[in-house]
Amino acid sequence: TQSGAVHHLGWDGRLVKSFEGPHHFGDPFYWNGRLYIAYSPHENGRQYGYICMYDAKTLKLLKKSARRSDPVDGLAVFNGVVYAGTKSFGRVPNDVVTLAKFDPETLEEKGLVTIPLGFKTMYYGAQNLTVADGHLYIGCYGAADRSVPDTLVVDADLKPVRTLRTDCGEGLSAVPETLSNAVVGPAGNGRFL
């Protein structure tokens, strides 16, 4: 995300297509043939945010949301809603996380939802989101103490189910169970990278 580019690689590892974007964006999320990306560029010393939707095959820009006054980070489409992490609290550690909701077709913002984490973030709130096993995984910059969780798992009603440690501060992706015995993430968790 700090490189400012999105690269589409084929299954053979070769570059299919790429494009440059603003310097800071959250993890891309694929859903129904589209790629959604949260951008948070800087302008005049302030950071702002917006969401873009691309055709996943051509990487053609299909739609861009209205500009938000605060940044957005990682995002995921969960139960037909685009959820994006916000930096509502800035660098202040917090025990709740605020997600912005967007319509997946129009990218119109539909409000905010605040969810209790069950742990205290180091700063910034939700950095990465992914979907697995019918749950939304919300990753945060966690505490240096590796015994403290950094990821919240919520159900379809956005109710907390459990917490875990994934060390996901710079990205969070679910790995299919068929690969989970062969691939181990940084926290030793075989289901996430």
Topology of this structure?
Layout: E1 5-9, E2 15-20, E3 29-31, E4 34-39, E5 42-43, E6 46-47, E7 50-55, E8 61-64, E9 72-78, E10 81-86, E11 96-102, E12 109-116, E13 123-132, E14 135-141, E15 151-154, E16 160-164
Antiparallel strand pairs: 1-2, 3-4, 4-7, 5-6, 7-8, 9-10, 10-11, 11-12, 13-14, 14-15, 15-16
Notes on the protein architecture:
About 6% of the residues have low confidence. The protein is mostly beta strands and 193 residues long. The strands form 5 sheets. A 4-stranded antiparallel beta sheet has the order 3-4-7-8, with no helix packed on it. Strands 9-10-11-12 form a 4-stranded antiparallel beta sheet, with no helix packed on it. It has a 4-stranded antiparallel beta sheet with strand order 13-14-15-16, with no helix packed on it. It is built from no helices and 16 strands. The chain is globular and about 40 Å long. It is 0% helix and 46% strand.
